[in-house]
Design goal:
Layout: H1 2-106, H2 112-134
Helix pairs in contact: 1-2
Length: 135
């Protein structure tokens, strides 16, 4: 009796293995395809998220650096720009007043053109050089 029960058990196991073997290869390949696509989707999502976060981080760092640079430049050199503008406008006003004085004194005389040219050579070129240096 025990021999009969054991034989029936072995036969049932062999029949199950025979029925499962063809199905196993079909499902094993399908499982690999599904898992492969799922893994690729996860990888793509991670890469996209890292790309978006990296772009946002780089933009934030660049904005911080630009703001810091502007603040440092303004704090260190802001007075230079103001001072240069004041000096430049003062020099231009002085030169204009000198020209007006020379014109009012020598207009209509033979000395007018040579004195204006002398003034331009002696003072005007220096004013132009200072303007370029200050700008």
């Amino acid at each position: 009796m025990c021999l009969l029960i054991g034989t029936v058990g072995i036969a049932a196991t062999l029949i199950q293995l025979a029925l499962i073997k063809p199905l196993e290869s079909v499902f094993a390949n399908a499982q690999g395809i599904v898992i492969g696509k799922f893994t690729q989707n996860i990888e793509n999502e991670i890469n996209n998220a890292i790309g978006i976060d990296s772009t946002a981080y780089a933009a934030a760092v660049n904005k911080f650096l630009d703001d810091t640079t502007a603040t440092v430049n303004n704090d260190l050199f802001g007075f230079t720009n103001t001072a240069a503008n004041v000096i430049n406008s003062t020099i231009v006003k002085l030169y204009t007043q000198i020209e007006n004085g020379v014109h009012s004194t020598f207009d209509g005389t033979a000395f007018s053109a040579p004195i204006i040219e002398f003034l331009r050579c002696v003072i005007g070129n220096k004013v132009s050089a200072h303007e370029k240096g200050l700008a």
